[in-house]
Design goal:
The chain has 229 residues and is of the alpha+beta class. The chain has one domain. Helix content is 34%, strand content 13%. It contains 9 helices and 6 strands; from the N terminus they run αββααβαβββααααα. The strands form 2 sheets. It has a 4-stranded antiparallel beta sheet with strand order 1-2-6-3, sandwiched between helices. The chain has a two-stranded antiparallel ribbon with strand order 4-5. Strand 4 and strand 5 form a beta hairpin. It is globular. Bound molecules: iron/sulfur cluster (2 copies).
Length: 229
């Protein structure tokens, strides 16, 4: 096994469901460009917990979401410490953190979805979520940036949503615009982020303080493929 595959194996043993490596140099902000490699991990969510979501989130889903994020932060911290002990620079992107850098809108310092498509983990669905072949959108993502050079996985450049419109029809906020993702599409062409977050804020305060929904993840059939096997 070469160095890339040894690292992939090690990260899977730490608990990642999927691991990929992507070159991110051209999409990173200037102050992070020296960390050109993105290590993308996906953690599979519980099908049982997601199956309980009907037309709104559940308390259990909210807890599961937060537990998965905490696990991802632990995992990406361990990966970055391991890389640092080998002599490389490494930085874990927080699993779920929004910062207001430009004074306009809150967003993560780097998008996990971008790293994941670059690293071959999946495509971005019409629901605006990363969708994997194995688990559909029933995953949470983590990213480690490093200056370690690895054998990069094939970037995903094509959506496999096809003509499906399940998530669009199910969204109670009418926030999904129905566009088919491609790498150069702007996020606002896929989803009205404000409509989504306003709906969650106004309707789900009693379940998860208005920050989770999960309906467009639950209805995606790509996420149930594995259950049919
Ligand atoms: S999270 Fe809920 S409100 Fe937001 S796009 Fe998905 S289904 Fe719509
Ligand atoms: S429900 Fe259909 S359109 Fe929406 S993300 Fe899943 S496959 Fe794509």
């Amino acid at each position: 096994m070469n160095q890339t595959e040894i690292l992939r194996q090690k990260i899977k043993e730490m608990g990642a469901s999927k691991v990929g490596f992507g070159l991110l140099e051209d999409v990173l902000p200037n102050d992070l460009k020296h960390l050109k490699t993105g290590i993308s991990i996906a953690i599979r969510l519980s099908d049982e917990i997601i199956s309980h979501i009907k037309d709104e989130p559940t308390h259990t889903y909210f807890h599961h979401y937060r537990t998965a994020n905490a696990f991802i932060d632990q995992l990406t911290l361990r990966i970055s410490m391991e890389l640092q002990s080998l002599g490389y620079l490494a930085m874990a992107i927080p699993a779920s953190q929004s910062v207001n850098i430009d004074g306009k809108e809150y967003r993560g310092i780097f998008q996990h979805r971008t790293a994941a498509t670059r690293a071959g983990i999946g495509w971005i669905g019409k629901n605006g979520c990363l969708v994997t072949e194995e688990f559909g959108p029933r995953v949470r993502l983590g990213t480690v940036l490093t200056n370690m050079e690895l054998d990069y996985d094939d970037t995903i450049i094509k959506s496999k949503c096809g003509a499906c419109t399940k998530c669009i029809k199910a969204c109670p906020a009418l926030a999904l615009r129905g566009a088919l993702w491609h790498p150069n599409i702007e996020r606002k062409e896929l989803i009205d982020v404000r409509a989504c977050s306003t709906h969650m804020h106004n309707h789900y305060q009693h379940i998860g303080r208005g920050v989770v929904c999960g309906v467009c993840i639950k209805v995606c059939e790509k996420g149930t493929n594995i259950l049919k096997r």
